[in-house]
Specification:
By secondary structure, this protein is mainly alpha-helical. It is built from 6 helices and 3 strands; from the N terminus they run H-H-H-E-H-E-E-H-H. 20% of the residues are buried. One of its GO terms (cellular component) is plasma membrane.
Length: 161
C-alpha cells in the first residue's frame, strides 16, 4: 500500500513540475516515478498515508511557491556575486541546528538547502546540518540556522512532523 501512495505522490509532483499534457512526458513520468518508487520506496517514511492528510497536502502545495521564491532570490544573489567585479565571496562551512524531528523532514530540509544556489548540505548529524555557504554571513549556530533553515522549517514541520 505504501508504494502505491509513494507512486501517487511522486507522480503528482511530476505533473506539478512539468505542467504538460504531452503523452511522451506523461509516460516518462510514469516510468521515472515507478522506478524511483521501486528502488527508493523503502527508504522514505514508514507512514506515507500521513502525507495524504488534507492539511499536509495543503502545506505541500504552499511550500512549492515559497521554495521557488527562495530559489529565485538565491539565484539572483549568486549571479550578483559572479558578475560583481570584486567577487564578494566569503565561503565557509557552517553548522546549523534544525528543530525538525523526523528523518524525512531533515532530508527534505537538506535537499531544499542544497537546491538553493549558494548553499549545499555537506552532512546531517542528528539535529545538526553542515552547510557550505558561498557567503557565510554568520558562523554562530543560531544566526546561521535562522538565515538558512528557518524559512523552510516552518513549512516542512507542518508537512512531515
Amino acid at each position: 500500500m505504501r508504494y502505491i501512495i509513494y507512486f501517487i505522490i511522486g507522480y503528482a509532483l511530476w505533473l506539478l513540475l512539468t505542467l504538460t499534457t504531452n503523452i511522451d512526458h506523461l509516460l516518462a513520468g510514469v516510468i521515472v516515478v515507478l522506478i524511483g518508487t521501486i528502488f527508493f520506496g523503502g527508504y522514505f517514511t514508514d507512514k506515507p498515508q500521513k502525507l495524504l492528510q488534507p492539511h499536509r497536502l495543503f502545506w505541500m502545495i504552499i511550500y512549492i511557491p515559497v521554495f521557488i521564491w527562495y530559489m529565485i532570490k538565491a539565484n539572483l544573489d549568486v549571479a550578483y556575486r559572479t558578475l560583481h567585479p570584486q567577487r564578494p565571496l566569503k565561503p565557509g562551512i557552517v553548522k546549523i541546528k534544525t528543530n525538525l524531528k523526523s528523518d524525512t523532514a531533515k532530508v527534505f530540509l537538506a535537499n531544499s538547502i542544497t537546491l538553493t544556489p549558494g548553499t549545499m548540505t555537506c552532512d546531517i548529524d542528528g539535529d545538526y546540518l553542515y552547510i557550505h555557504w558561498i557567503y557565510a554571513q554568520a558562523t554562530d549556530i543560531e544566526t546561521a540556522s535562522r538565515i538558512i533553515a528557518r524559512p523552510f522549517e516552518r513549512f516542512l514541520r507542518r508537512i512531515f512532523d
